[in-house]
Each structure stands twice: as C-alpha cells, then as structure tokens.
Amino acid sequence: MAKKKNDNTAEIGFEEQIWKAADKLRGNIDASEYKNVVLGLIFLKYISDKFDQKHQELVDEGEGFEEDRDEYMAENIFFVPENVRWNVIAAAAHTPEVGKVIDEAMRSIESENDKLKNILPKNFARQELDKRRLGEVVDLFTNVKMADKGDSRDILGRTYEYCLAKFAEAEGKNAGEFYTPACIVKTLVEIIEPYHGRVYDPCCGSGGMFVQSAKFVERHQGKISDLSVYGQESNPTTWKMATMNLAIRGIDADLGDHNADTFFNDLHKNERFDFILANPPFNLKDWGGDKLKEDPRWDYGTPPEGNANFAWMQHMIHHLQPAGGRIGLVLANGALSSQTSGEGDIRANIVAKDLVEGIIAMPDKLFYSTGIPVSLWIITNKKAQPGKTLFIDARDMGTMVSRKLREFTDEDIAKVSGAFDAFRAGTLEEEKGFSAIATTEDIAKQDYILTPGRYVGIAEPEDDGEPFEEKMKRLTGEISKCFEESSRLQEQIKKNLEAIGYGM
Description:
Number of helices: 16
CATH architecture of the largest domain: 3-Layer(aba) Sandwich
CATH class of the largest domain: Alpha Beta
Largest sheet: 9 strands, mixed
Distance between the termini: 73 Å
Strand content: 5-15%
Order of helices and strands: HHHHHHHHEHEHEEHEHEEEEEHEHHH
C-alpha cells in the first residue's frame, strides 16, 4: 500500500521546501540580491498571517471593528490594507503581474505602518525574476496549513533563520556581514545568560544575537517581554533584514530609525546595558580611527588606526551597565596576543581592571566567511570570582558537517557553559588541556597574553592499562618485524632488477 502523502509542508521540512523553491528563482540574480526577495516574501507572509488571524477574531466578535487599525496596533500587529491581502497575492500567483502585485503590497503595508517605512523590499517586478517560479513560491506559502500548527511565527521564524544560513553558505566570504553561525551565538548566550534586562549589539547584522537571546529566555520559562533589545547596523540592507527577522520573532527592538556607523554615529550614545553580544568585523582596518583619537570611549588606550578590535571592545565596555553587566564578544585570535600599535597595553589595562572573566579558544572552520579560528571573550565589571579568569581550549571540539564547515554541537556548548557555571560557583575542577583558572598575577607574568593554550596545558594521554615495560617490549618487537620485512623486500627487488639486467 502506498504511503499517504503528507500535505502539511510544515511537517515535511517547510524551511527546506522554501529554500529549494527560492533557489530556482535566482536565475541570473546574485545571491546577495535574491536574498532580499526570498526573505521579503517570508516576511510578507508572516505579516499577512498575523493580520488574518486577528481579522478573523474581530469578525467572529461581530462588533464591526475588523477594519479598525487601532485594534491591530494595540497588539503590535501590522495592518494590511484590503486590496493587498494574501488572498489577492495568491490569486495573482500564476499571472505575469504577480511581481507588481507583491511590490504594491509592500508599498501599501509600509504606508500603513510607520515601523516598516523604507524597510520592505520592492523588487519583485524586475525583469530578471522568473514570474512562473515566483508564483510557485507563493503557492507554497498559500498551501502550507499554518492553522494546524497554531501560531505561524515559529514556522516562518525558523524558515527565515534557515534561509539566512543557506544564503551565508552561498555567499561565502561576504556572509560575515550579516550572519554569525547559530552555534557560536548560542554558546555566547548560554554563558552570559540574558534572562532579563537590556540587551545590546553594536554591529547586529541580521539580528541573530537577539533571536538566540529570546530563545534562551523561552528555554528557561521566561518571558521575551523581560528583554529590552537595542542594536545598530551600518549596512542598510542588513539593517532591514534584522528589522524583519526580529519582527517575525515577536521581538520589539530599537535598532534606530536608520542604519549608521557605530563609531561615528552611536545611536544609543547615552544608554547602558546589562548584556552586550557582538561579532564585529574581524581586524577591521579602515574604521576611521584617525578621526577619533580623543574619543571618551577609549578608557584603556587609543585603539590603532589599522585595527578596530579594541575599539569595538572598548565601545562595549563603555556601554556596560556600571552596576554589573556581561559582554560576549567574538574576535580574531590576534587580539589575544598582539603587542603592536599599543594593543598589548590596551589588553593589559583591561585585564588589570579585572574585566576579563573568561576566554574560549574556538575550533577553526566555524564560519562560512572564513576558515580561521576565533576566540570568545567574556567580559564583566562584576565578577563572581574577583581576580580570576577562566581559560578554555575548545579547539579540538566541534563536528565537521561538510568538508569546509564545522559545527559546535549542543553537547560542546553545554560543556563550555557548564564550566563557566562551575567557575562562577567556585566548584570548577580544572581539566588539563581544556580548562584552567588563572589569577591576574598569573596573566601579568605571561605579559598579559590571553592565549588559552598557555594556561590549560596539554591533556594527559589516556592510560590504556598496559604497563610501560610490556608496551615497549611489544612495540620494539613489532618494529623489529617491520625492519625484517623491509630487508626481505629490498633483497627481492634487487634480484628482480638483476634478472632484467639492472643489477645494483
């Protein structure tokens, strides 16, 4: 008997189905461009689903308020005008005008919702976009049975996240502008534990740090509303992506009303935060340091003009809540040991102020954009263990999921975050080759170099239970047999050569 087909795409990999369908749209369009098409369509479906759900509730109430904008705004739901609702888009799916209909929907929704002004993509009518395939993607959205799953936010949120990762894979080196692998973000979140309070990312990309923070709260039976989210992004396209990503997740965020350079136009200049999470551009050279030499943020030393690593770090420390807050920061490994251009002095000053709670050396190949390994810095102005820093060497952890890409598994994350929990509680048992606790004085003796390998040492080889003398006797015997076999083969080769007139 043939297996009954499951027509609920949410249960058979809706994310993957959307990606495969969307991939057909690309044609001659660059991945960076058609990314906006796909993500914009996901967001449009999310807006439409939320509106339709509330609209039906108001119809059922029978009070005649189903077209009252205030009813939707009161629940943070975007209002969708009647002439551009999803049924109109679905009806146009197999017409040449489908692109124009979607563009008009985007413009109309922006005009009705101030929060979305100049956010939504309006490039669906472009000639290069295959309208037949665009219609097929619209059909996929139309046919998925969201009602069976309750709130569509989770499905569409997962789809948005899945497509971001796939776009990052497709774009390679350019992916670093908008995407930090979820496993890295999750590691930082599990360590700094943003249960409630103000969360900030000064270079927020597509908003992945905030999404994982919200997931952390949910996993611990908290409320997303207990988090206040603030961010900034310089790239205008990426800033729009972040706005849509957070809206789909139900996260009300202050990302400013425009994109802006964090160093030169700090949109949250007077704000202080409980938690700061960031993956700034690695070793950024042209960041304008020559114009910011007297900036009040440089409490620990003026960052070099040719590398923004310690400019980012000091910017974050500057924005940290003075009563106690935590920073989770991704940096290239050079920041751990560089002594050039005053970086060593800045690092020494930060360590001497007892701000560095922990350093984690991560494995290579975690990023789509680069194969180089990175380190995670955990910084706080209120240590649970004053005068001490936890070093973790996780370079041998993670699992290769492809020839070029490694993932930090949930088990890996749990081991690292568990070490921090034990460290803060004063119960950590150091593990040679993996973890070590160093005092500020210990670090000073190492010239304030923070490379974990200097502190954790090399793991002891596992004891196989075979006594040393017996093992050596066995191994030397095996080597002797190998030598004998080698000599025999040499003699045989010589005889064979002599037989054909090439004696040695």
